[in-house]
């Protein structure tokens, strides 16, 4: 179960929703998550995103967004690279310049999830 968080300083909510769908579609396509495994937090406005405009040779502008994906460990480097590429392609189609999308994957284990009721459902 990936949990996706997308933060932006100024993106309208409809743009973040399109980017969120693009990220979800990329997770389904490149990582193989189920289509109904869809949990996201979209944040814009009150937050402030600071992204160096030239870090590692990528030219970002004031419309930078940060995408954090918390997911179970175990994906291959190839799957992760395919995911990054898929997000870039789908972000562009959603109206977000790929150069402005920073992605970080945060991996954890099955015991690190509860979907409610105070139960670790994955440990059943």
TrEMBL record:
Coiled coil, from the record: none
Pfam families (UniProt xref): Tautomerase_2
Organism superkingdom: Bacteria
PANTHER family linked to this entry: TAUTOMERASE YOLI-RELATED
Protein name as it appears in the record: Tautomerase family protein
Organism encoding this protein: Humibacter ginsenosidimutans
The organism's taxonomic lineage, starting at the top: Bacteria, Bacillati, Actinomycetota, Actinomycetes, Micrococcales
């Amino acid at each position: 179960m990936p949990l996706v968080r997308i933060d932006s300083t100024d993106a309208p909510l409809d743009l973040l929703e399109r980017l969120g769908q693009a990220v979800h579609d990329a997770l389904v396509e490149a990582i193989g998550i189920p289509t109904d495994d869809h949990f996201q937090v979209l944040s814009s406005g009150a937050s402030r995103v600071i992204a160096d405009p030239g870090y590692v040779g990528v030219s970002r502008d004031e419309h930078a967004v940060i995408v954090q994906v918390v997911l179970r460990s175990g994906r291959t480097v190839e799957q992760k690279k395919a995911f990054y590429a898929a997000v870039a392609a789908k972000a562009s189609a959603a109206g977000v310049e790929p150069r402005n999308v920073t992605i970080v994957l945060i991996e954890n284990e099955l015991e690190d999830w509860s979907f409610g009721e105070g139960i670790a459902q994955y440990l059943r």
